[in-house]
């Protein structure tokens, strides 16, 4: 499983931020036949998806993370509902494909959030504060082993039998990316 250090690196946050940008672009169209209150609520609900993902990620406990992910999922549901309602309004037919694409992206955010919550709930690790000493030692040992392997594969020379292995090639690529 990938480890993320910053919420900006999370694919679900990136999709949610993209969703907000696309919704904002739609709402900036002149003479869009939606009320100010509707547009304002749609914009706020859309922004709430990425904001709640970010806020949950920055919290220190798993319980808080799950709570904020649930808020984000609820906001994504609200966005989907509003997009369907907007699509049924007269004058919105010319935006049908945009609205459907936005709905699909909002649904993708919901699915990703649901999967993330599920993986957290199934994990034996219940958050940073809940790691036992043995779990911390095992995590550190695995991290050290992975770092050693990465460094070894990156530094072997062309004469070594593993030099052209897929793992060594990938290790060299990763090393180039981090420089």
The first-level CATH class of the largest domain is given as Mainly Alpha
Helix content: over 70%
User: Over the alpha carbons, how many angstroms does the gyration radius reach?
Assistant: 22 Å
Average pLDDT, all residues: 89
Largest sheet: none
Could you outline the blueprint of secondary structure elements for this entry?
Layout: H1 11-27, H2 36-58, H3 62-87, H4 96-122, H5 133-155, H6 166-178
Walk me through this protein's architecture:
This protein has helices at residues 11-27, 36-58, 62-87, 96-122, 133-155, 166-178. The protein has 179 residues and is an all-alpha fold. The protein has 2 domains: 7-127, 23S rRNA-intervening sequence (de novo design (two linked rop proteins)), CATH 1.20.1440; 131-178, no CATH class. The relative contact order is 0.10.
Provide a short characterization of the protein structure.
With 179 residues, the protein is mostly helical. It has two domains: 121 residues, Up-down Bundle (de novo design (two linked rop proteins)), CATH 1.20.1440; 48 residues, no CATH class.
Task: From the structure above, extract its key features.
179 residues; de novo design (two linked rop proteins); 6 helices; mainly alpha; 2 domains; 0% strand
